[in-house]
Specification:
This protein is of the alpha/beta class. It has helices at 48-55, 82-88, 97-103, 137-145; strands spanning 78-81, 94-95, 116-119, 129-130, 134-135, 149-150.
Length: 151
């Protein structure tokens, strides 16, 4: 069965010469509009979007002032305030990331607990034993003043 893709042209394809002859409808400017750059052969208008794109930085955040020690795969520590410890834990209790997760202080759960940092410099009256957590300097002073320990 013959398809459209197998048909062969039997006659010469008609084409139209433009810009020739007085009586033709494609005389004078020959469909090229008015005068100027676009009326000339080989005209090229510079694309404006290219200029806009070229002004943007190639890779944002990878310049000369970027910290050499930035590790994007490292998880950031979850801050936990001393007030949250006072309201959720008894006097003399041991505080670990797992204990914080079980009490609902941490929202993130999973087999590997996120790094935790205890922050805040409030005065506390309970003794806490902290293990496996980071502690800010003001929180460390408050915990040790209350008689707690950090390891």
């Amino acid at each position: 069965m013959a398809g459209l893709h197998t048909l062969k042209r039997m006659t010469k394809r008609s084409y139209r010469r433009v810009g020739r002859g007085q009586g033709s409808s494609r005389g004078k400017q020959a469909g090229r509009g008015g005068k100027g750059q676009t009326a000339r052969a080989g005209h090229k208008i510079r694309p404006q979007m290219r200029d806009i794109i070229k002004k943007l930085p190639k890779r944002r955040g990878f310049g000369k002032n970027r910290g050499r020690t930035v590790n994007p795969s490292r998880k950031r520590a979850v801050p936990v305030s001393l007030i949250a410890l006072i309201s959720n834990f008894e006097n003399g209790s041991e505080i670990t990331p797992k204990a914080l997760s079980l009490k609902g202080v941490l929202n993130e759960r999973g087999p590997l607990f996120p790094p935790v940092k205890i922050v805040g410099g409030e005065m506390i009256d309970k003794k806490f034993s902290l293990k496996g957590v980071l502690v800010s300097s003001s929180a460390r002073a408050a915990i040790e003043k209350a008689g707690g320990s950090i390891s």
